[in-house]
Specification:
Length: 138
């Protein structure tokens, strides 16, 4: 369901939760061509500071797109920009919560700025800001 620009309020929030699976990481590597062994090779990844394979950072960031495109504002939303900082790894089997919160509304350009955060339990794994163009009525 689309939330039109006219109905969005400052502080409004939405979230999406997903457990990252082996299949998610393998398919993401196949789709993007990013076969970095820290994502795809357990033996290699065990020797890194992460002590095992981790999900691609942009796989985690894409969960923010899920919230924006499906919930707030929802279908018809146009992604303009995203600033993000990765703060901790996501391991296969972790459940990630992607959250957005409206921080600014630009009625002239119908743009919405949102604080974004992805977390695993109480640990922030990604934070930043997204700007979208929200659909308008009629």
């Amino acid at each position: 369901m689309t939330i039109y620009f006219e109905d969005i309020t400052l502080g409004q929030t939405a979230q999406f939760r997903k457990t990252v699976t082996e299949a998610d990481v393998v398919l993401f590597a196949g789709i993007t061509g990013d076969h970095n062994p820290v994502h795809t090779d357990e033996e290699y990844a065990r020797e890194t500071p992460f002590k095992g394979r981790i999900a691609h950072g942009l796989l985690t960031a894409s969960l923010v797109s899920t919230v924006l495109g499906n919930q707030l504002p929802g279908p018809g939303t146009i992604y303009v920009s995203q600033i993000m900082r990765f703060t901790a790894p996501v391991h296969i089997g972790d459940t990630v919560t992607a959250s957005v919160r409206v921080t600014t509304l630009d009625p002239v350009r119908h743009r919405v700025t949102l604080a974004i955060r992805c977390s695993v339990a109480d640990t922030t794994v990604l934070e930043g800001e997204a700007v979208v163009i929200a659909p308008r009525r009629g």
